[in-house]
Amino acid sequence: MSRVSPRDLGRLVKLLHETLPEARHARLLARLEREPELAAAYEEMQRAQGACDHVAEEQPPAPSWREMETCLHWRLAQEKPTQPTSEGRRLSWRWAALGITAAAALGLVVGVVISKEGPSPTPTRSLQAVEVPSPVPSPPLAPPVVEQELAALAILLSGDVRVLPATGTAIAPLTLQRPLVVGDRVLTKKDGTATLQWQQNTGVLLRSNAELAFSHLTSNEQRLRLFSGEAFFEVQRLEPNQHFEVIAGGLRVEVVGTRFSLRLTRDTTELQVDHGAVRATPIDEQTQKARGPSVKVKEGQRLRIQRASGEAVQPMQAKPIQVTLEPALHLVRWRGLHRVLANTGVLRVTSRPRGAQLRLDGRMLGETNLALRAAEGRHLVELTRHGRLIERRWVQIANAKPAKVTLRIKVKDPVRKVVKPPVAADLGATSIHELFRRRAPLIRSCYQRRAKRNPWLAGKVVLRIRIDATGRVQKAAIAKNTLGDSGVAECVQAMVRSWAFPKGQAATVTYPFVFRR
Fold first, then answer.
1. CA–CA dist 266, 252 (Å, integer)
2. CA separation, residue 471 to residues 42, 424, 463, 483, 506 (Å)
3. Which of 68, 94, 146, 197 is most buried (CB neighbours < 10 A)?
4. What's the whole-model pTM score?
5. Taking the CB of residue 455, how many other CB atoms lie within 10 A of it?
6. Helix-helix angle 22-34:36-57, to 10 degrees
């Protein structure tokens, strides 16, 4: 910010407080797009203002009982009369000494008189000094822990995401403005993903075909249930009086602050811990009673159980997790539901066709089309496809009006011919190649279904096809597969087996398919 002139600093201050005229406001925003140093200075001013606003909104800490007692003693001392002067203090001590002497003489006279009258009926007791113990200060009482009901909020939505309300009304599309309470169920369809948050650094990312319900949601106890699909959880470090658990299939997972994922299939439940540790217990899905002892799953391990029998495989070391290849769990600063709704805005990003990777402030959040909630202010939006940057712009997110980013992308065919396939001359290389070219969309559909789960899926599949004289496929085998995903190769293999080729002499065809986005 040292390279920015004082005049520009004054203009940035006016822009921050929205006191510039419209014409100057537009010109200054255009300069921010052209001059990175000026934009960096403005971002630094925004962060400083946000930090000041945060300090102003923070509530003062409640005083302890010891501080309150000290304050009370101080106020009582202030209410006492003022102390006398030094001369007055000397006079008061003289009169006090005179009074004490007179009282002692009077007591001596009375004692002599009583002793002459006779002994006391009660035996005499010698006077002893009795030490009075000083009162032990009681420890300060801790303020009572108040359990508060929480509500979740959708932070990011992509594709078809719906909610089944706890009231039992009809299922409806989930929006960024609708709070989620206990009993609500969130359902993601085939192409849908959703990020939900209900506390600071605590939320869940639901993949496609997932169903999640909130069974209990308070500040001290949180219970969720995953009925199907895959979900990635992040939980902040909990206090001793707090409890967090997720029930998924025949498994109960209890955590104290960690990141982990759960994946449900028809037969198994799989748990993988990315950070921290959890305690997993096999349970009966109907009664939710424990079927076996609890198992501690540590960071980097995974656990898989059979849903029908409850048999669990001991935790094993998982493969290294490539965090950069997966969309990040997008969470916002959480200071209560009402503050989040008031201090954040909505950003909608669409592309034609869909499938561009979105990065917000350097973090990959998923594929378009999607809508998300973010803090107010300027954010850097980057859209890439096939590893190539398509769009990069600054977007101003405000609470009043949703921000929008729309672009059209030129898409190339992901199925490309690398080597001309060797075929028999009688079959006609041109006709066979034309057949593969016409049916390329069918081959591409095998790849696109798997690429939705892994946007970086790329490689080559080589098929060796044996064709008889009638044009029927006798055998289709996978000669080479560098995708690292057997699902694409098996889909292509099954599809080619049903094709009919031109009639001619029997031959063997080797055809390569290259897939990339």
1. 17
2. 69, 12, 17, 29, 8
3. 197
4. 0.54
5. 20
6. 110
Residue in this structure with the two tokens 């201090």, named with its chain if needed: 343
H/E element, 15: helix 6-16
Which of 2-6, 10-14, 224-228: highest mean pLDDT?
224-228
237 phi and psi angles, rounded to 5 deg: -65, 125
More confident of the two residues 339 and 130: 339
Q: How far is CA 177 from CA 152, 163, 210, 352, in A?
A: 11, 13, 21, 26
Angle (nearest 5°) at CA 132 between 128 and 137: 170
CA separation, residue 373 to residues 50, 126, 174, 224, 342 (Å): 17, 84, 14, 23, 11
- Separation between Cα atoms, residue 395 and residue 403, nearest integer Å: 7
DSSP 353: S
Asked whether the beta carbons of 181 and 165 are under 8 A apart, the reply is no
pLDDT over threshold 70, residue 106: no
Beta strands 357-360 and 377-385, pairing class: antiparallel
Can you read off the two tokens belonging to residue 119?
């002994």
- Comparing 360 with 118, which gets the higher pLDDT? 360
Return the higher-pLDDT residue of 49 and 391.
391
- Name which residue leads in pLDDT, 232 or 106: 232
Strand order in the sheet with 473-481: 473-481, 459-467, 507-515
Tell me which residue has tokens 């669990």.
312
Contact 384, 392 (CB under 8 A): no
Percentage, residues of the chain above pLDDT 90: 16
The three-state secondary structure class of 158 is strand
